Amino acid sequence: MILGGEEGVKREELIGREIKVMKIKEVGVGGEVYGVGIKVGERGKIGRAAGVSCVVIKQGEKRTTIRMPSGEVKEVQQENVCTIGRVYSEKRERKGKAGVNRRLG
User: Fold this and answer.
1) Into how many domains does the chain fold?
2) Kind of pairing, strands 54-59 and 2-3?
3) Which of 20, 33, 15, 25 shows the shortest CA–CA distance to 89?
4) What was the pLDDT predicted at 60?
5) How wide is the angle at C-alpha 22 spanned by C-alphas 7 and 69, nearest 5°?
6) Where are the beta strands (DSSP E) in 1-105?
7) Is residue 45 part of a domain?
8) Residue 73 reports pLDDT greater than 80
């Protein structure tokens, strides 16, 4: 993914880490994933909030069992794509009370 217009800054360089997308059947048991697709060929829908990840519990013949951040256990097809690791998020700086940006100018 290219960000930053003409400079061509890659997203991996922008956030300082490598992003690895693969099929969920290639992830080992106990691996942390996010952005898991619900249907085959669909982009990630599960585990996309800041700082969360799903854990692969069991690899079956046709389905993979994952534990979602809420604690719910769900089975997904092994052909679904996912991203390895946790969702990246920067710590936001709190400026004070509401409306402070209006006074900054």
Assistant:
1) 1
2) unpaired
3) 15
4) 93
5) 100
6) 2-3, 9-10, 21-23, 32-34, 54-59, 63-67, 73-77, 81-84
7) yes
8) yes
